């Protein structure tokens, strides 16, 4: 016997066992007990084998597609989470930067002279302008005029 003939006989035997198990299961589900199952002829076994091979191929391709889609979805989800994490970190950094800028501005406002000091400076500026505009007046005359 050649190797190909041995493989063919083994394949037919597998198909016959499959047929026996399938028919036995169907008979029990339908309530028939003790029924003798006729073995398949070579042609029917070959056809059953081809059918099983086709169904197995479809099942494997479908399962592979499901697995690949699951992996793709997981990678997409990880990428989306990384983008959200990066955006969150950028916002947190921006808030920290704005908090430092706010503290600096508050320090500048507190260091600025009070409003009364600004009024005194304006008054002095007006006095200096008056002295520059009226060079003939003495300093003693310019001061009382500005306080009016």
TrEMBL record:
GO terms for cellular component: mitochondrion. Keywords: Coiled coil. One of its GO terms (biological process) is regulation of lipid metabolic process. It comes from the Eukaryota. InterPro entries: OPA3-like (IPR010754). May play some role in mitochondrial processes. Belongs to the OPA3 family. This is Optic atrophy 3 protein isoform X4. It comes from Sapajus apella (Brown-capped capuchin).
């Amino acid at each position: 016997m050649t190797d190909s003939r041995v493989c063919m006989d083994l394949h037919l035997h597998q198909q016959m066992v499959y047929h026996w198990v399938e028919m036995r299961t169907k008979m029990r589900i339908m309530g028939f007990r003790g029924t003798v199952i006729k073995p398949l002829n070579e042609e029917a076994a070959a056809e059953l084998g081809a059918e099983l091979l086709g169904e197995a191929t479809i099942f494997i391709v479908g399962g592979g597609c499901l697995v690949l889609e699951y992996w793709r979805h997981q990678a997409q989800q990880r990428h989306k989470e990384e983008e959200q994490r990066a955006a969150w970190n950028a916002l947190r950094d921006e808030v920290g930067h704005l908090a430092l800028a706010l503290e600096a501005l508050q320090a500048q406002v507190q260091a600025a002279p009070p409003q009364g000091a600004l009024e005194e400076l304006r008054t002095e500026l007006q006095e200096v302008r008056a002295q520059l505009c009226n060079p003939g007046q003495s300093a003693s005359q310019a001061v009382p005029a500005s306080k009016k």
